[in-house]
Amino acid sequence: MLAKLIDFPNPAASSQSNDTLSAILRLLNRVSNIADEKTDASIAIERIFREVCDYSGWPIAHLYIQNPDDGPEYISHKIWHLDKSLNQNSIKEFQHLSEETVFKVGKGLIGQIAQSLQAQAVEDVTVLKAFLRSEIAKKNNVRGFFGFPIILDNKCVAVAEFYGREVGLLDETSLEIMTYVSSQLARIFERMISETYKTQLMEKFKSSVQGSVEDLSSTSVELSEAATSLNRQCNSSLENCQRVVGGSNEISESNLALETAINTLVHAENESERKNTHVIQTVSDLANDIRSAMSQLTTLNKTAENIGSIIRDVNEIAGQVRMLGLNASIEAARAGVAGKGFAIVAGEIKSLASQSEDASHHISEQINNIQNTLKDSTSLMMTVDSQMNQLETTSQDMTHVLKNQHEATQSIASHVEHSTVTADNISKDVKAMNTAMDELSYLSNNLRTLSSGLEGTAKNVAGSSTEFLDIMQK
Q1: Candidates 2.30.38.10, 1.10.287.950, 3.40.50.620, 3.30.460.10; CATH matching 235-462
Q2: Band of residue 11 on the pLDDT scale cut at 50, 70, 90
Q3: pLDDT digit string (tens) for 209-257?
Q4: Measured distance CA(118)–CA(156) in Å, rounded
Q5: How, if at all, do strands 103-104 and 60-66 pair?
Q6: In angstroms, how far is CA 24 from the centroid of its own chain?
Q7: Residue of higher predicted confidence among 157 and 324
């Protein structure tokens, strides 16, 4: 059975009944007005705690709320009413322990109230062994306890606890008063939750819708700038394409002229190669003839040497004949008239011998001249042979050079042909690019028009969203 806390005014005294009723009505009216005011929830709860404590004489009021991060437990909301008559040093220990204590649903007085959704009162908490703050409560000279749930949608969102200096329980009138106070606190919590939810919605709206609108506006501006830049680049690209087409045509014309020149060069190279082959053959034949002539000169030189040897033999024979003719003349002279005929023959023989010596000497001089001429001719022929060898080597080198030049010319001709094909392909691609650029320019102009309209829409939406937020904040 609930009994009244002796701190409450005694309604039983008839002389004070009207005053008590007026005090109750004033309390309820002030609590209701505080709940109606759109002030900060924590401030409103502190004011209601102060009104209740001023009316009841309770020195302590405190609030526990459901942990927003862990629903099944309740933690201190650090909202207090502490009467000035309390010892400030000793009450801090009670306050600190209360704020550090966490109540699971069904555990401790606060957890039991949250689970049962019913108010509970304790006559004297200092003798309650399960009450963790009993010793500190005794130090602060508090005894009676009353706590009630603050309920929204059949769920306990908070528990308010009050402490009195005297031992006792609540009577039915006091219980009804606190039930009304609980309902007004529930209104504050409902408004707080609603405002929190509205704030969250507004923040979400700002971060998503309004942020998206701002991004949309910014994006539309960037899109318009990009479209303008794209259109400018398209025009620039079109001009570049025209220049590329002109350059490609010039390349094609240059390639045609180069192809003609290369064909002429190939023909000249082929003719040079043919003539060089003929030169090599002629040089080779001439070198063979020179070598043959040199062989014949060598043979002729040997023949001349042999003739010289024969001439020397003839000179020796002529000398001997001349000596025989001289001897014959001497013998003929000795013979006198008998040797006169023989002397004539001996004279003729001596004369022939002298002529033979003169002829041999003349022939020897001619042979020497011939041999000297042969030596000079051989030396000259050797020089010519050496030069012919160099000429033959040079002609062969020329053939190698012409071959390399021909290969290089063929490679150039192949690249020119490939370049011509590439230039033609470039011309085709550039023409296709011109068409694409025209279409892209058309699309960029449309995009710029759309982005301008989008920017206007974004501004309208931004204005509407600002008006919406202003209305929500009122």
Answers
A1: 1.10.287.950
A2: very low
A3: 666 666 666 776 777 777 787 778 778 877 777 777 777 677 777 777 8
A4: 10
A5: unpaired
A6: 77
A7: 157
- Retrieve residue 396's tokens: 């062969």
68-100: pLDDT as tens digits: 886 689 999 999 999 998 888 889 999 999 999
Backbone angles phi, psi at 472, to 5 degrees: -65, -30
Residue showing tokens 């000429």: 391
Place of tokens 């000079």: 376
CA distance 302 to 306: 6
pLDDT at 155: 92
Of 177, 122, 185, residue with least CA distance to 149: 185
- Is the pLDDT score of 2 beyond 50? no
| pLDDT tens digits along 36-53 | 998 899 999 999 999 999
Q: Enter the CATH code of domain 14-170.
A: 3.30.450.40
Domain residue limits, the chain: 14-170, 235-462
SS3 label, residue 66 = strand
End-to-end CA distance of the chain, in Å?
Answer: 48
Q: In this structure, is the dihedral angle defined by the CA atoms of residues 425, 426, 431 and 437, taken in order, positive or negative?
A: positive
User: Which residue's entry shows tokens 């003729």?
Assistant: 348
170: burial class by Cβ within 10 Å (0-12, 13-18, 19+)? buried
* Predicted pLDDT of residue 8: 45
Q: How far apart are CA 279 and CA 281, in angstroms?
A: 5
What are the tokens at 308?
């010289």
